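Run log, item B.
One chain of 273 residues. Sequence copied directly from the ordering sheet:
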Amino acid sequence: MAVIVHHRDIPDVPAHDGVAYAPVITPEAIGNDRIRLGRVTVAPGATFAIALDAGTIGWMHVLAGGGALAETDLGTERIAYLPLGFSGAFVSGDSESTLLFAEVPDAARFDAALADMPTELRTVEWTREPVLESEHDARTRVYMATPALAGTNAFKGEMISYPPGTAAPEHHHVGAEHFQYVIAGRGTALLDGIPHPLEAGDLLYNYEHETHAFINESDADFTFVEFFVPGPCETVWSPGANVCAWLPTGVDSEGREPSREIGYHVHGQDDGL
């Protein structure tokens, strides 16, 4: 059964001076150790130290504020991919920063070619990625992590936005587990047809074969980031559902020419991304 974690039920645990850690995904919550996810709050000028285990990789996404990670500028427009055993520190800037910090332990079990992942810290300006539009409605997608961006198949991520009145077709996945973390608005997850309300800061964790869909019945955009572990998986559409295909819009999140081109494709057919 899918796991829903509401933001009001996630305590901020002081880690050290100026840093608090809220455990969003834990092995105890999901029953396995595929991924750990935390929401980290860093006071202005404070330091969040990172020390991954030898077989662990991860990523970090700034939700608010910004600062420097290992002397590399990192703001809300960038995502950082943390290589095997990464050690470094994020120093918050002049305002409080909120981070999503993910760890994938024993990542080699999800990517046989993990040794080919770049060994240096990599950051990507995800706002320069092409915006893709749903073939059947007004939903949009921007990739946050793909093999071409992160250098690994251990995880894959995207940001999906549902304007008011839009919905996703019912489906499930085979070969990966995944989560949605809501970063803006309110929406409804339909799990085996049963509605579950979600709002900013909430998380939904889906196991393999679990049927799910989303609908936005509010008057504002409903937006979440979605990550799969491992990245490659098969998407199976429920009978009668429209296959979710994505079309290039020719622009990035700021209306500029995007940093690369991604053509028409069906969700789950991610070769070359």
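Observations after the first pass:
- The mean pLDDT is 95.
- The longest strand covers residues 57-64.
Flagged for discussion on Thursday.
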